[in-house]
């Protein structure tokens, strides 16, 4: 059975949606801004090439920093993850905040036009050119416009001269040679309109309202959502003027990280960009007005029936670039520790049955390099904003008056120390994408990007001074005794509005708070599993480098040692039959499982005690469901492998199923349901597979309202038997000592009572089947009236025939390219058409090929017709060879990339004993992919796309 540990189309978790605006603290995030203190006397400080001075902080010596004579910054770094590839980021310091009211939308529009015609690249040729090189549009070729910057992104599958030269040429064209043909602008306008419609969701409007309250008089909040009227009317001349005012070398940074010769890359950059000069007068970076420090608190409310009820208490202050000093780094660290400790307190409060909140967190945030905010956000249960606001007020006051305990500080310090220690051990396996993003951020913030070893040395030096007293002082300084903005989001208008909010705060302030109790030390309860299990089989699959071990109790252990990411181990434990054993008529259980696994803890430790026990350890206890197995997967380190294995054994034998977990779920579901229903694309993503399967709940959530009917008892009935007796297979991929790992597995999972050996999963009594009579299925959403989504699905089959499976994948890729050409580029109907082929090997005969797009209701007929026409076109004649290669090359690049990624091997390794056919699939897939011909694509289209399709439309709910 092929397992990828991810459903092809899937909404994010319900809890994540419910707490979209709750700000979780990230205690290790200070590393970029709080570098190490162990510099030697002869180490250069700061980044002289970028004009960044520092008296005591050296930059990462593995990065080559430079600046051209025209002022353009660049940073180059050789890195081998992924091997043979390179990540390019081209950043311009201009975003939505730079737009005047008359230009609202210009920054994002310019970003789109960068792909639509320049002096050296005619309109319509850029994306196909990159696809021929193996870059998929969206995945490998993309761009981002933020409030304060614009970044263009390329992921190069190779670093040969042809690919690198083409990529640098593309960036040079974007930098200074865009044309802004009026006809091209008009063609792109519809795509911008579609994107604005799709992104006009309650959460963005909520964020815009908060920023507007936090920064009154600034244009930042107003720029979070696009101005549709301005998009309709903005001209090519407007866009060109904006482009020339801001796209200038002195505001640009080019970052290239990957597997290449740095000196050669540097020479190419200098040759390509040396002649770039700004045109006309440079325009100034926007400086927002800030509230006076002694101004009375701003109180504001936001109302939308689809938003979670979020309460924010924030202290807003001016933002300034990094000071690049050791003292400033320590200040950042102390605030981060305080925020993390407060976040842990808040989330512990959610466990109580009468808790008015479902989540929350404290944080020290930068607001688009315009301001910074320190404070707390909590997500209330529906209708309980008053109690949630009072709770937030009291917890901030408790922290102000009494500070944090030694145990709270020690827990966070342990997490920071471990993160920094692991970063040193894992430095050579860092992701090129992550490194490139960090270097772009360093340029924007004028901060010194330091090496992991330096960060660890610095933290080790100052850790003794990170005391409760120091953290408490830093908290009080950052909080300054009170918020400067109080923002309350509710589903219905608040009677009395801001006066009612002020009254709640006044009444809460009259309630005395007490000092927090010092938590008692706890010993982990699950570290002795009895007599170690006996190994009864130990063989090696030589060509794939997979060692297969079987224990006497039936456990299959499969290992693959790699050097892709030093210091990291990817693990996956496959348990039982997974979703195939779930009831087909009980929706929501698969969505409920990850939430329950995250909050339920173990029998001997509730979630908060477990968090304290595991402080400073790189381990996880998550659980999800695939078609053929429950799956506990994640990453750990060689030093924490034993503990991770103990946790996996405890998951099997000591899942708690606490009654209070049901209470927490009941509080989350209404919030999550409203969030999901407000987004047409989420409604479609959750429902699609289930609708195609006639409503089978194992494949999706056809009715989001049914989520509230999922109970802990139902979930336990489906999951507990699999945990208790389901067949097991454990996969380990990464950096470990194989013999030591086998011994550790034998002492934990191998020591459990015997279970049946994992093999082919029995066909479910009632396997899903594609809906018998294709017809229109209409779903509804509660978002804006101009939002919607449409999908067509054609029945295919399962994935057992690899050649046919890969041909369908390529057919979907080709269809996606044609949808992009017609729906996006020619008609401007949508910015996000997608086609995909879904197959699996658990349910015989079930699979589908689908095309879908987010479109307004009035465009659905036309969009569906285009999808049908393209399906008919692909069946009528062989696809053009060039189009097939543009579809094939990015797939081939993904296959090549997968060879050097631990997580890409993990599913195959986990199933190495139970699914030996999967090994042959891995061996054969690139050869079979390359053998697919245009005639094969036509034959597949004729076989699968000429029948009637199931059509799904997600339309606005009648008001």
UniProtKB/TrEMBL annotation:
Keywords: Hydrolase, Metalloprotease, Protease, Signal. Residues 78-200 form the Peptidase M16 N-terminal domain. Residues 1-31 form the signal peptide. GO terms for molecular function: metal ion binding; metalloendopeptidase activity. Residues 233-415, 711-889 form the Peptidase M16 C-terminal domain. It comes from the Bacteria. Its cofactor is Zn(2+). Gene3D superfamilies: Metalloenzyme, LuxS/M16 peptidase-like. One of its GO terms (biological process) is proteolysis. The keyword Signal applies. InterPro entries: Metalloenz_LuxS/M16, MPP/UQCRC_Complex, Pept_M16_N, Pept_M16_Zn_BS, Peptidase_M16_C. PANTHER family: METALLOPROTEASE (PTHR11851), MITOCHONDRIAL-PROCESSING PEPTIDASE SUBUNIT ALPHA (PTHR11851:SF49). Belongs to the peptidase M16 family. This is Peptidase M16. It comes from Erythrobacter neustonensis.
């Amino acid at each position: 059975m092929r397992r990828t540990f991810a459903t092809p189309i899937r909404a994010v978790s319900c809890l994540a949606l419910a707490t979209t605006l709750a700000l979780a603290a990230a205690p290790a995030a200070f590393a970029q801004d709080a570098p190490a203190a162990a510099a030697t006397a002869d180490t250069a400080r700061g980044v002289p090439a970028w004009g960044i001075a520092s008296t005591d902080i050296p930059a990462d010596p593995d990065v080559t920093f430079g600046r051209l004579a025209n002022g353009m910054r660049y940073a180059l770094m050789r890195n081998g993850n992924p091997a043979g590839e390179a990540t390019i980021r081209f950043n311009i310091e201009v975003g939505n905040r730079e737009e005047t009211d008359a230009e609202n939308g210009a920054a994002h529009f310019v970003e789109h036009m960068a792909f639509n015609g320049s002096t050296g690249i005619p309109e319509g040729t850029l994306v196909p050119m990159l696809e021929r090189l193996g870059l998929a549009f969206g995945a490998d070729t993309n761009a981002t416009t933020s409030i304060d910057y614009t970044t263009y992104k390329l992921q190069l599958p190779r670093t040969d001269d042809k690919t690198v030269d083409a990529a640098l040429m593309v960036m040079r064209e974007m930098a200074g040679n865009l044309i802004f043909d009026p006809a091209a602008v008009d063609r792109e306008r519809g795509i911008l309109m579609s994107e604005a419609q799709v992104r006009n969701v309650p959460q963005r409007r909520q964020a815009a309202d908060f920023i507007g309250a936090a920064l009154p008089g600034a244009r930042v909040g107003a720029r979070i959502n696009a101005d549709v009227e301005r998009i309709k009317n903005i001209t090519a001349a407007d866009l060109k003027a904006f482009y020339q005012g801001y796209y200038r070398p002195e505001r640009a940074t080019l970052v290239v990280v990957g597997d290449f010769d740095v000196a050669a890359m540097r020479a190419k950059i200098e040759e390509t960009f040396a002649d770039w000069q700004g045109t006309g007068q440079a325009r100034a970076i926007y400086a927002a007005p800030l509230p006076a420090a002694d101004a009375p608190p701003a109180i504001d409310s936001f109302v939308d029936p689809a938003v979670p009820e979020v309460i924010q208490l924030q202290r807003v202050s001016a933002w300034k670039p990094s000071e690049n000093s050791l003292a400033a780094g320590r200040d950042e660290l102390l605030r981060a520790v305080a925020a993390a400790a407060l976040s842990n307190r808040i989330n512990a409060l959610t466990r109580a049955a009468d808790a008015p909140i479902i989540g929350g967190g404290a944080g020290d945030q930068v607001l688009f390099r315009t301001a910074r905010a320190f404070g707390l956000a909590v997500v209330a249960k529906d209708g309980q904003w008053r109690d949630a606001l009072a709770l937030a007020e009291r917890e901030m006051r408790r922290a102000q008056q009494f500070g944090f305990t030694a145990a709270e500080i020690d827990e966070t310090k342990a997490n920071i120390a471990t993160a920094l220690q692991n970063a040193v051990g894992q430095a050579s396996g860092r992701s090129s994408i992550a490194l490139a993003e960090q270097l772009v951020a360093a340029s924007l913030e004028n901060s010194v990007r330091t090496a992991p070893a330096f960060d660890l040395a610095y933290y080790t030096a100052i850790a003794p001074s990170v005391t409760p007293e120091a953290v408490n002082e830093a908290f009080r300084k950052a909080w300054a005794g009170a918020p400067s903005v109080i923002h309350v989001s509710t589903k219905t208008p608040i009677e009395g509005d801001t006066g009612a909010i002020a009254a709640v705060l006044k009444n809460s302030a009259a309630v005395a708070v007490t000092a927090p109790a010092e938590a008692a030390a706890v010993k982990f309860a699950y570290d002795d599993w009895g007599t170690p299990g006996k190994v009864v089989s130990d063989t090696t699959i030589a060509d794939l480098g997979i060692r297969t071990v079987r224990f006497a109790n039936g456990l299959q252990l499969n290992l693959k040692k790699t050097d892709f990411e030093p210091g990291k181990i990817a693990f996956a434990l496959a348990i039982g039959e997974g979703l195939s054993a779930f009831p087909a008529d009980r929706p929501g259980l698969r969505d409920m499982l990850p939430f329950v696994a995250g909050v339920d803890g173990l029998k001997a430790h509730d979630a908060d005690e477990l968090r304290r026990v595991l402080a400073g350890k790189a381990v996880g206890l998550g659980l999800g469901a695939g078609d053929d197995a429950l799956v506990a997967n994640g990453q750990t380190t060689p030093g924490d492998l034993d503990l991770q294995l103990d946790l996996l054994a405890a998951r099997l034998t000591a899942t708690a199923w606490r009654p209070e977990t049901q209470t927490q779920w009941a509080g989350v579901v209404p919030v999550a349901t409203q969030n999901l229903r407000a987004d047409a694309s989420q409604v479609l993503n959750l429902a699609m597979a289930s609708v195609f399967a006639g409503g089978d709940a194992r494949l999706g959530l056809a009715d989001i309202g049914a989520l509230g009917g999922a109970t802990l008892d139902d979930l336990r009935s489906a999951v507990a038997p699999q945990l208790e007796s389901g067949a097991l297979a454990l996969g380990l991929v990464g950096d470990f000592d194989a013999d030591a790992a086998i011994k550790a597995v034998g002492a934990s999972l191998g020591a459990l009572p015997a279970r049946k050996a994992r093999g082919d999963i029995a066909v479910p009594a009632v396997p899903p089947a594609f809906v018998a009579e294709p017809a229109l299925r209409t779903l509804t959403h509660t978002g804006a009236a101009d939002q919607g989504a449409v999908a067509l699905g054609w029945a295919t089959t399962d994935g057992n025939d690899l050649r046919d499976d890969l041909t369908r994948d390529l057919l979907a890729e080709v269809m996606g390219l044609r949808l992009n050409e017609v729906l996006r580029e020619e008609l401007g109907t949508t910015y996000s058409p997608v086609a995909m082929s879904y197959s699996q090997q658990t349910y015989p005969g079930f699979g589908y090929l689908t095309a879908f797009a987010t479109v307004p209701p009035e465009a659905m007929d036309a969009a569906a017709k285009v999808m049908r026409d393209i399906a008919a076109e692909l069946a009528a004649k062989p696809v053009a060879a060039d189009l097939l290669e543009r579809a094939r090359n990015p797939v081939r690049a993904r296959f090549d990339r997968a060879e050097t990624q631990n997580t890409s091997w993990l599913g195959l390794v986990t199933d190495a004993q139970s699914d030996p056919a999967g090994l042959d699939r891995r061996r054969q897939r690139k050869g079979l992919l390359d053998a697919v011909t245009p005639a094969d694509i036509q034959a597949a289209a004729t076989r699968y796309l000429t029948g009637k399709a199931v059509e799904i439309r997600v339309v606005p709910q009648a008001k």
